[in-house]
Specification:
Blueprint (H helix, E strand, L loop, with lengths): L1 E4 L8 E2 L3 E8 L1 E5 L7 E4 L3 E4 L15 E8 L8 E2 L1
Antiparallel strand pairs: 1-7, 2-8, 3-6, 3-7, 4-5
């Protein structure tokens, strides 16, 4: 997926039924709180991976539009995400 998070927008806490692998294509200053890990501040050119069923969210809103390339590996028929 090609996902754009606009400046000033936060992403609600949620999980995915499979692995999420993401790459920050542009923008930056995106906080990524993942349960059980220290919160990371991601910038263009950085990547991250989140294990299945691990609660995550968008932390403090970015000050600029951030564009992500996201790959999900999930079992067919399961919802891509669910709120926590």
């Amino acid at each position: 997926m090609d996902v754009t998070v606009d400046a000033g927008v936060t992403v609600g806490r949620h999980t995915h039924p499979g692995i999420e692998s993401s790459y920050v294509m542009e923008g930056g200053g995106l906080e990524l709180p993942i349960e059980g890990q220290p919160t990371r501040l991601l910038k263009a050119g950085e990547a991250f991976q989140i294990p299945p069923e691990t609660p995550q969210a968008g932390g403090k809103a970015a000050n600029a539009k951030t564009r992500l390339l996201i790959n999900y590996i999930v079992e067919k028929g399961k919802p891509l995400a669910k709120p926590v």
